[in-house]
Amino acid sequence: MTSKKNRTAFYKQPAIIIFTLFIAGFFLVQHFSRQMISDEPLVLTKANPPEIIMYSTQNCPYCYIAKEFFNKHNLPYTEYDIERSEKHMKMFYLLGGRGTPLVIINKEIIHGYDERLMRKAL
């Protein structure tokens, strides 16, 4: 009888551990995303408002950071989730997409999250 209880407890522990790691990872991404975005004021030099398109995936931490950057500076952007749309996946690859996010600011393509390049394109 005790061996049956031990088996039940063993099978429940991995789920708890995985859930805990998922929650910890979520909060770490949020914490580090705030640190990765500089507090330097943003100066729009090319277009006001700028035309921003971002190809992303739902679970991409750098996509999350890019969205936080746009939201922090009140920049309007259009986001396309390439995992949910075959049309946007094809466009992502046509634009030379290798990884997410792929950001287009005023027709300038930026691969990955790079705040310096994003600021320069604005």
UniProtKB/TrEMBL annotation:
<feature type="domain" description="Glutaredoxin">
    <location>
        <begin position="52"/>
        <end position="110"/>
    </location>
</feature>
<keyword id="KW-0472">Membrane</keyword>
<dbReference type="InterPro" id="IPR036249">
    <property type="entry name" value="Thioredoxin-like_sf"/>
</dbReference>
<dbReference type="InterPro" id="IPR051548">
    <property type="entry name" value="Grx-like_ET"/>
</dbReference>
<dbReference type="Pfam" id="PF00462">
    <property type="entry name" value="Glutaredoxin"/>
</dbReference>
<feature type="transmembrane region" description="Helical">
    <location>
        <begin position="12"/>
        <end position="29"/>
    </location>
</feature>
<dbReference type="GO" id="GO:0009055">
    <property type="term" value="F:electron transfer activity"/>
</dbReference>
<dbReference type="GO" id="GO:0045454">
    <property type="term" value="P:cell redox homeostasis"/>
</dbReference>
<protein>
    <recommendedName>
        <fullName>Glutaredoxin domain-containing protein</fullName>
    </recommendedName>
</protein>
<keyword id="KW-0812">Transmembrane</keyword>
<dbReference type="InterPro" id="IPR002109">
    <property type="entry name" value="Glutaredoxin"/>
</dbReference>
<keyword id="KW-1133">Transmembrane helix</keyword>
